Amino acid sequence: FTMLEAQAHHQIKTLLRQEESDWPHHLTLSRLVARSLRRRDTTLVQLPPSSSERWWLGLLVPLCLAPEAGALVLTAPQRRRLLQLELPRLRNQGLRLPCWQGPTPPEGPQLWLMDVGELIQAHRDGHLGQRQLLIPEMDQLSRRMRNALTLEIEHQHWDELRQACPQAESGLLELHDRMSRQLFADATRPDGAVRLEGSAGQALRDLLQLMPASPEPWNSLRSINPAEWSQWAELDHRLLQWRWKLAPLEPLQLLRGVLLDHPCLMFSSNGDNARLDLEFEQAGVVPDVRATLRERELNEPLPVYAPRRQPLPNTRIYAQHLLEESRRLILGQAGLTLVLINDDQLRRQLTSSLAAEFGRRVVHESTAPESNGVVTCNWDWWLEHQEQLPAPAQLIVGMLPIASLDNPLTSARVERMKQQGEDWFRTLLLPEALSLIPTAIAPLRRSGGRLAILDGRLRGRSWGDQVLQRLEPWIPLQRLLPE
Q1: What is the DSSP letter of 398?
Q2: pLDDT tens for residues 421-474?
Q3: Is the pLDDT score of 396 beyond 60?
Q4: Is this prediction's pTM over 0.85?
Q5: 330-363 per-residue burial string, b: 16 or more CB within 10 A, e: under 16
Q6: Which residue, of 51, 162, 221, 420, has the greatest Cβ tally within 10 A?
Q7: Using CA atoms, how far apart are residues 344 and 454, in angstroms rounded to an integer?
């Protein structure tokens, strides 16, 4: 041990004697964090998927000894937990961790708290200095960066642009009208999303370049490279209006310096090295240290109900199959049931059908279900709100989280990979789907619940074996037994 590791180890041991914890990794994690802070290296720590947020102590105690060393990247719920729960917990044990919040760097020895948007801005402004980036959920960083960078151009922004540049008013009106007619003509279903391609977007960018200045978000639009961004319109048929959205295809590639220019301490709990390695390659980063912490409870086999002959999601009988199987799984279930489906139309249809049978037990994306309630939601919603819900008695996977090519962002990312001659399904879509599974099912491991997969692709496609491998250890449920 060096001094920092030894002090952190001693503090954690003292603290754990006064607090009960069944998580076995506090001491190991604190040593890894302290070593990374001392060496200022790039370290990736693979946490067990079921670790929830029990990593706080192992991260924060070493930082109490060197608060000025880091910039901690948190979501809003994580920041609230830090300020309202974790810091008072440390103070009760005589530990102090001074924290700084704001767009400019702290002047004293304080830990700088920031969200992903603030991280991007601090990097662009050159404010990060020599700080080490501390990223508790590295597997979510790319998605959160994309969300932070996404531009949204709404109806009122066109009005603001015309008011700022009256000399271009007629050209803007004509262009907006032409784009609107084309988008609504191309829509395949009401209120859907339509990929924005062709000359109209380029004509607008050319027009913006001729203007002396333009308000946001138009000014940001001028500076983007269309080859690195996806563009689509979200339509509102009722008002005959549309929202223009632009998102970077691969944000870690677009902002390579964020990770490359600073030492990083990263946690990941999805167990997917393939996906992370691709993102590290995009960011130009090679971790100096990789460490994996394993959990004993993951050795308990997970009961999995996945009949061999099930229809594929693109068949006409799939919606009925989903309803009948979900009904059987919910009947007599005394605990909470989660139903995961990313297809909005199919999910809402299933929610209505289940509510007609089970009444108010069935809710859509709600964090306040009844004790034997049924929550229908998409995968991202479940991953984001796990901590706010009791552990489920069962998880029903209506559809595996393979991104749909109907999604304009997905189709643009796939098209780019096709142009590069890569296997877009096995390099992009499948690893991203597999990376969601361990964290999604982790609460079942803790609750002793069961998993049901009603997507026929699990048994009908060769890659289904990779999904089953990601569930290990598991045991098959051949038939449903009454509770």
Answers
A1: S
A2: 999 999 999 999 998 998 899 899 888 899 999 999 999 999 999 999 989 889
A3: yes
A4: yes
A5: beebebbbbbbbbbeebbeebbebbbeebeebbb
A6: 221
A7: 17
